[in-house]
Amino acid sequence: MIDDEPVEPGSPAYWIRQAGGDPVALRHVLGTHVPTAGLDRIPTPTLVLIGTEDDSHATADALAAALPNGRFERVPGTHFTAMTSPELTAAMVAFLAQA
């Protein structure tokens, strides 16, 4: 991939470029297992959000499930575009209002 090549925002190539990462190292990090042992002792309400167009939500879903007060939600968009969606703000406001 050439750095001045245009890439579509939200695409894997865009994500790799934004992260400044080596694709091989980045794939290793993304595939790393994060142990959930002990998460059941964290009582803090936690909102786990992902974009509806993210390729996989298994890790986020597992994280929310491992937390006693974890909540998993999706908002429209990819990993990056979801950050600018009004639904993201609405989900966070609703979550914080319950605290």
Distance between the termini: 45 Å
Oligomeric state of the chains in view: single chain
Averaged pLDDT, please?
82
Assign a percent range to the helix content: 25-40%
| H/E topology pattern | HHEHEH
User: How many domain regions?
Assistant: 2
Count of helix runs: 4
Can you offer a commentary on this structure?
With 99 residues, the chain is an alpha+beta fold. The protein has 2 domains: 1-32, no CATH class; 35-97, no CATH class. The chain is built from 4 helices and 2 strands. The chain has helices at residues 12-19, 23-30, 58-66, 86-97, and strands at 46-51, 70-75. Strands 1-2 form a two-stranded parallel ribbon. Strand 1 (46-51), helix 3 and strand 2 form a beta-alpha-beta unit. The protein is flat. The model has no long low-confidence stretch (mean pLDDT 82).
What is the element layout, followed by pairings?
Elements: H1 12-19, H2 23-30, E1 46-51, H3 58-66, E2 70-75, H4 86-97
Summarize this entry quickly.
By secondary structure, the chain is of the alpha+beta class. It has 2 domains: 1-32, no CATH class; 35-97, no CATH class.
